[in-house]
Design brief:
rod-shaped, 215 residues, 0% strand, 87% helix, 2 domains, single chain, mainly alpha
């Protein structure tokens, strides 16, 4: 009898433990299911955050690529402008050099023209003086010829004087006389000293004879 009582108590105790184990199992399953649901939700949140991060990274990369392209474009434009500026500076330097050379050449030409004008003016002044002297001498000579009647013609001039006189006549537009040309030609052909008068003694003797005859 006692054995049956003990067996009944053991069975009750076993059933109680079995019920507790079942309850623990249900609770553990519920906790596992909740953990699974939480894990799925966490995975969904992570996947969403990962997708957003990937989208943000792609957007940032696109912005970076666009910024890089714009920076490269700006660098190319800057390099082109720098090259144009350098070329313009070189052209300006060349133009400045050419302008300076042109100014130097213009100053040289101007100085040469001034020198030529000064020389021409000096020649004109000298020519005017010579013309004035010629006119004065011509007037004096004409006055002397009008007031003097020679008794005899004596030519004390040298062949050199004759040649200078002939050249003066040619410069004045006058033709030298045949007598003067023959006189100079004879002196040159006879190799005479062109700075000494020719036959001055004979001319003086002839003039003296003419004076004696006149008396």
């Amino acid at each position: 009898m006692q054995s049956l009582v003990d067996a009944a108590e053991l069975k009750l105790e076993f059933d109680a433990q079995l019920d507790k184990a079942h309850a623990d199992t249900v609770e553990m399953k519920a906790a596992f299911d909740k953990s699974t649901v939480d894990a799925v939700e966490a995975k969904n949140v992570f996947d969403a955050q990962l997708g957003k991060a990937a989208a943000d990274a792609a957007e940032m990369k696109a912005g970076y690529d666009e910024t890089t392209a714009q920076a490269l474009k700006m660098k190319l434009e800057y390099d082109e402008q720098a090259a144009q500026l350098q070329k313009a500076q070189a052209d300006n330097a060349e133009i400045t050099l050419q302008r300076a050379q042109a100014e130097v050449e213009a100053n040289l030409v101007k100085e040469a023209l001034n020198n030529q004008q000064e020389a021409l003016q000096n020649l004109m002044d000298e020519h005017a003086k010579l013309v004035h002297q010629r006119d004065v001498l011509h007037a004096e000579l004409q006055l002397a010829l009008n007031n003097y009647t020679p008794k005899a013609v004596i030519d004390a001039g040298t062949p050199a004087d004759k040649m200078l006189s002939m050249l003066t006549d040619l410069l004045d537009g006058n033709v030298p006389s045949i007598q003067d040309i023959l006189y100079v030609q004879s002196a040159i052909l006879e190799s005479l000293d062109i700075y000494q008068p020719i036959d001055l003694g004979k001319q003086l003797m002839a003039a003296k004879s003419m004076d004696v005859s006149a008396t």
